[in-house]
Amino acid sequence: MDIAKVNSSVALGRGKLKIKYLMPGELDALTKAFQDWFDASRDAGKQRSIRGRYWLEYLVLRFTGARLGELVRLDDAKD
Question: Which of 10, 27, 30 is nearest to 19 (CA)?
Fold first, then answer.
């Protein structure tokens, strides 16, 4: 299959709504960009802590299939 000809969207209903999604290469590039952004904050401190939380949230979304709303409702003290 030629990857250039693969459509990265899915039509729902009568073709009125299309859900776009990332191709595997695009998803890998996004993951690398997130990791590079996190790694750029080498100083231990508030910035690294904040970036670390975003990095972990991204990883949870990518690898678990959780919804963004579910992730936002997580409580650090209890969950």
Answer: 10
